[in-house]
Amino acid sequence: MAWSIADVARMSGVTSRTLRHYDEIGLLPPAWTGSNGHRHYEQADLLRLQQILLMRELGVGLREIRAVLDSGADRVAVLREHHRRLLAERDRLETLARTVGRTIAELEEGRDDRDMMKINNPENLFEGFEWSDRSDEVRERWPEHWEQSRRAVESMTAEDTERWQREVTAQMVRFAEFMVEGRPADDPVVQEEVDAHYRGVCRFWTPDAAAYKGLGRHYVDDPEFRANYDRIAEGLAEYQCAAMAVYAEARLG
Length: 253
Hints:
Pfam families: MerR_1, TipAS
Order of helices and strands: EHHEEHHHHHHHHHH
Helix content: 55-70%
GO molecular function, one term: DNA binding
Keywords: Activator, DNA-binding, Transcription, Transcription regulation
Protein name: MerR family transcriptional regulator
Structural class: mainly alpha
Number of helices: 12
Shape: elongated
Strand content: under 5%
Number of domains: 2
CATH superfamily of the largest domain: Antibiotic binding domain of TipA-like multidrug resistance regulators
Strand order of the largest sheet: 1-3-2
């Protein structure tokens, strides 16, 4: 039995455009193409697509996915590894759910007379988060910067990584506090914090004005980044993005 590209898109939730792209890069060729140019897929192709989507969910890049699928590795063994990682991810998400629940409870109990958010034990806000860049978009848009960042990350020791995560945590909390206080994005205090953020980014790669503004937009547009920010305070991603845009125009333009 064979399914059309429209059928596969409907079943999998993957757009026809993405399926055509997977064909073009040799990741998921159709079983056959009709005289009218329409792609058709068979059961083996659906199983391959499932593996692609599983690895995408686990943050694996398209190039690495193709290498795995073309390696001839035992399919069941590969699926077992995916299953193991998915169970680990399930446990992480359960931890995140507890983190968010605890935050909700603390915020509901800690509101002052002005109904302002109060942040208690900020380190608890981030239990369960994974601070790794899993975006193919960054790699595709800024390949040189991505490679520079990758080398910098790989050179970090475990202690360096832990210290960096603590710094990121503290900085996100400060931005949230500024937002709750009602400070505008161009407030000098906010811009001083953005300067610290920019210098932190420069430890890994050095963005120009356009790239730094693009990074801010990525915090908003990428669902994972946006969700992480909004779990701290709703609208935080947009707030930091706006502050980064002000900084880029004033300091990097």
